[in-house]
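User: Predict the complex with 4GP.
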Amino acid sequence: MEKATLQELLESRLKDIFSIEIAEASPQELFLALANVVKSCYANDWSQTRKNLLVEQQKQAYYFSIEFLPGKLLKSNLLNLGLLDTAEELFEELSFSLDEVAEVEKDMALGNGGLGRLASCFMDSLASLGLPGNGNGIRYNYGLFKQKFVDGHQVELPDDWLRAGNVWEVRKESKAVDIQYGGEVYLIEDENGRLRPERHGGYVWRAVPYDTGMVGYQNDMINTLRLWSVEVPAAEEANYATIESRRSLEDLTAVLYPDDSNERGKKTRLMQEYFFVSAGIQSIVRYYLKLNHPLTMMSEKIAIHINDTHPALCVSELMRLLLDDHDLPWEQAWAITVKVMSYTNHTIMAEALEKWPIDLFKEVIPRNYQIIEEIDRRYLEEYAEVHEAALLNRTRIIINGQVHMAHLAIIGSHSVNGVAKLHSDLLKSVVLHDFYLIFPERFNNKTNGIAQRRWMQLANQPLSKVLDTTIGKSWRHNPQDLQLLKNYQEDPTVLQRLADAKLTNKQALAEYIQQTTGIEVDPTAIFDVQIKRLHAYKRQLLNVMHILKLYFDLKDEPQAPIHPRVFIFGAKAAPSYHYAKAIIKVINEVANLINHDPTINDKLKVVFLENYNVTLAERIIPAADVSEQISLASKEASGTSNMKLMLNGAVTIATLDGANIEIRDAIGDENIAIFGLTEEEVYAYYAQQNYSAYAFYEEDPVLQRVVNAFIDGTIPNIEREGREVFDSLLKYNDEYFLLKDFKSYCDAQYRVDLAYKDQQRWQAISLMNIANAGKFSADYTVQNYADDIWQIEPLYAHVKEPNSASL
Ligand code: 4GP
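Assistant: Here is the predicted structure with 4GP placed in the model:
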């Protein structure tokens, strides 16, 4: 599209919506007008994609996820439509900044972290590969809370992201479905001797879908992200006459992760899970029936993906529809269900493997509960002759009065995958070992990937330009072409250009830090970044302990040859995760102490940026020199910020955990700083039960001084939190082995410091990281899901060649 055409469209939208001229428009008005133009640019392709899918009758994948974290969409849609450069030029000509306009958009934060962000990366890749794949989730009125720091404590404010409306979504009233909750279900024999459910009581809520176009990268493919919102069904209006009764209904899709420390929150959560599952499955079956194929062939046209355990009810809900609404015999319905379903596990942390009390199940979704009981009964019966009773009793779905969602997902799926090689191996050997014995053929690995277009082309334009001029533009379509950069490892001009791009990004981040926190940081210092959810296993505390060590080194010897460093944190703690919040307070107070200590002479700065989200990540990642990936080996399933930071030229300091191992394999030991226990060593400690935090503390005076600092008054204002940290390390024997890994972490940090001082060497390492990051594009990951799990192919009727993703 020509610039002039874009301008005309923009002008006419501004007139239509606001009755104003461009010159009078505010960034808000420009945003809305431009977003509407963008929408109209893909409207036709969106309907064409749907029509083609119906005509071609190709198999489609449906990705069920309780979280999606797309971030802002304006610039990514412009990029994918091939309009970004034109829009940027136009705005410049009009003396506006496109960035300022894009900033207006609310970050769509319908998720917590890795799991939700991965779901959105996959949406982008599916469309960009021309693959028919749709998202299915919940349209929460409030996204993940907005984080503020008050006196160094995390305070959670509601994220009212829908207040000004959401320009990208389309309400599809005609596609609404009813969701049944509660009541009692009796099984009554019909004239053919078949047991049929008869429902007494209960209530029906309406699920209304809001669809958002998922725009493929310059290929005219537009998939759909369908998010469901709850409403009162028209026939039930009279029953919801009071504000209170309405409120309890509206609570259902109000917030992501209702506080489930109480019964009411737990119930809401289970109802949410059933809500988006039932709505999604009903709409899929309705679509499938339009194709006029027998239900027994469903797996040839439909793949349903269970992203973590939250949508595990997909199994029992599809069974319910096939059995109750479509009269299929159990065996047929089960065969279809298992062929259609697949499941990804995202964590080995036990708390995330959901279990629900059966009483709650019976109360909320009684018919699904009956079906789950029957799946459970048949599971025991079917495998009784092949496997020992003890094994079956450990793997069955209903155990000790609880429904195990992961068991339901595994038993009901043909594929179970982990998200990095190590994680998938641990699933087989430890976490899901019992299931591996029963269903070895179901287990496979799909290492995570990232949306490289967002994390490089959009987030890091300075570096993108260096890449274009050095290796050409093919990397924009084929990320593996980043390898071409390897030819320049010893080219001082290219290394300098990379360094310049990094400096530009660091200057921009320094400005943001100054504006938002008042802290001044020097862009020539090392920017050392740890951005991820706050969790004990991710060991932000280990990072803090190293910072304290450097602090003491400088106190003892102010001229110590340490290259100046800025430690940057971004992290939210779950509202009910007390210990994680204590760590936030500690980091903030350590920052206060160090940033204001004149003897440190600005050699160390600690910055904890508030409200970490996708948009903030887009600011931080391009400016990072060092990437902290320091979880205890075996605990981080994969990680994806590790891949984003690597792509942007940061050098990783890492344990051999999750995808760090595959990053190390891709770039070689000389381009990454590895430290700490390996997964085998961690498990050896577990087996021998001989870990003694105190022993490490006792023998290392440096460590002693650091650990004591949490309680000896060195760090002001952390009486309670410091004690909690101290106790977790010594009294409760340091669950995540920080004391054991401390020394080797400090050694690795020292190596990083030395490497940075040799700028030529540092830039060459950084270059190798960028050059080898192509393989972590989610395009490749999704291609593997498409080939191995979903068996979907690019839309045949596609007008343009889909993005190639062969490895
Ligand atoms: C996360 C894992 O912690 C992270 O390692 C992984 O990269 C990400 O999923 C995507 O697979 N898990 C979650 C969760 O976000 O809620 O379990």
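The CA atoms of residues 112 and 144 lie 6 Å apart.
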